[in-house]
Amino acid sequence: MNKMTPHLTTEAEMHADLARLRATFASGKTRSLDWRRGQLKAILRMLKQEEKAIIGAIQADMRKNWVEAYTSEIAAIRKEAQYALKHLKKWTAKVKVPTPLLAAPGKSWLQPEPLGVALVMTAWNFPFHQSLTPAIAAIAAGNCVMIKPSEVSENGTRLIAEIYPKYLDTDAIAIFQGGPQETGVLLEQKFDHILYTGGGTVGKIVMTAAARHLTPVTLELGGKSPVIVDKSADIQIAARRIVWAKTQNAGQICINADTMLVHESIKDELVRAIIDHLKKAYGDDPQKSPDYARIINERHFDRITGYLGNGGNIIHGGRSDRDDLYIEPTLVEGLPEGHKLLTEEIFGPILPILTWSKKEEVVEYVTARDKPLALYIFGTDRKFEDYILANTSAGNVAINDLMLFAVVPGLPFGGVGASGMGSYTGTQGFVTCSHFKPILKRGKRMDLDARYAPYNKKKEKTMRFAWN
């Protein structure tokens, strides 16, 4: 599959699409549970019938191996859609709320209702997963959806524009294609919710644009996610799982380990184990391995390789090939304070290594920086684990593994502070894309006279009792 520049949505097309989505929502069509189930089933059908094309587009953009492309895109989306289908009836049911004496006799409940037209803006590293997972939440909640895939993943975006309309209801779901200029025009429009996945710089632009319309936003922004390795850790397990995570998609994952903080007593042994597992996975020359992905484009290649140098010691890796968009898995230590590898989100296969001797040093390091999207702990010391959990904040946490919280539908996914706001996936996705309308229904009986003027001491006593 050759890379092609996708069609850019014109301003006229955008306005026509938005008008169509708003008209569809106003018609009540998307409120039907049958419609919602139909769209979720259509997504499952698309994943099955277009699997080869989807994986082909992913491989054309980033040369991911089949297993990685299948599990991170096809399987993960399928699980999310199946979970929504299974729980949709329960999610959309009324939620009963106790009614106090003052409002008795009466019934109180929360009625989930859709918000309207949601905008889903995706990153390029998982074009299908990051467009469909938030869309599944929005569809399950009964919304219309405008999907804006990243222009960076050219083949993925082109295929999204080609196949989504073949399976999904185009009256309620539209695809917007464009770069920064077109996206700027898109963000001038009013939406009822925006779900954005990407970097903090664009996240601020999205939030600023949303504020003009008082539109709520869900932002997943990434950041510096640390992996903390205690001296009690199983070194071989830690090394194998760190290698697995750091080399997935050549490190181009927002929840990937961005810094390793390892107890000084096991640092050398852990480094040797990581190098050993790298060789087991990809051989002596990962560039020749069919299982190792590539950097998305030259701009990101230059950014990542530009982090190397200016201090620090490369203890493994460091080789790269711009023509092949290849960067070898690389371990770096001895970095000076303020080095970009310690301050910037790497989004690539470079792992800075820092050591510590006291647990307080770990907490001090983590809390002195922006709250990460993910935090990882390796160890078997429960007191150490509890100490880190109690004294740090992160969007998501995994203990003795990395990233797998993302495959648990019951766990909401999202950041905190600079790593994002709000969350989605599973039940939380439905909640994020819904308004739970509070409703009180009263009868005619027991119309408490004490609530009405004129007031006296007896009425005051009655009202005090009713309010308690």
Structural overview:
With 468 residues, this protein is α/β, with parallel strands linked by helices. The chain folds into two domains: 11-221 and 419-437, 3-Layer(aba) Sandwich (Aldehyde Dehydrogenase, Chain A, domain 1), CATH 3.40.605.10; 226-410, Aldehyde Dehydrogenase, Chain A, domain 2, CATH 3.40.309. 42% of the residues lie in helices and 18% in strands. It is built from 16 helices and 18 strands. It has helices at 11-27, 33-49, 51-62, 66-91, 129-140, 154-167, 180-187, 200-212, 235-247, 267-282, 298-305, 340-343, 359-367, 382-391, 426-432, 457-467, and strands at residues 95-97, 106-114, 117-121, 144-148, 173-175, 193-197, 217-220, 226-229, 259-263, 313-316, 320-321, 326-327, 330-333, 350-356, 374-378, 396-399, 420-421, 434-442. The strands form four sheets. It has a seven-stranded mixed sheet with strand order 10-13-14-9-8-15-16. A six-stranded mixed sheet has the order 5-4-3-6-7-17, with helices on both faces. A three-stranded antiparallel sheet has the order 1-2-18. A hairpin with an 8-residue loop joins strand 1 and strand 2. Helix 3 (51-62) crosses helix 4 and helix 4 packs parallel to helix 5. The termini are far apart.
Topology:
Blueprint: H1 11-27, H2 33-49, H3 51-62, H4 66-91, E1 95-97, E2 106-114, E3 117-121, H5 129-140, E4 144-148, H6 154-167, E5 173-175, H7 180-187, E6 193-197, H8 200-212, E7 217-220, E8 226-229, H9 235-247, E9 259-263, H10 267-282, H11 298-305, E10 313-316, E11 320-321, E12 326-327, E13 330-333, H12 340-343, E14 350-356, H13 359-367, E15 374-378, H14 382-391, E16 396-399, E17 420-421, H15 426-432, E18 434-442, H16 457-467
Parallel strand pairs: 3-4, 3-6, 4-5, 6-7, 8-9, 8-15, 9-14, 13-14, 15-16
Antiparallel strand pairs: 1-2, 2-18, 7-17, 10-13, 11-12
Helix pairs in contact: 2-4, 2-5, 3-4, 3-6, 4-5, 4-15, 5-15, 9-10, 13-14
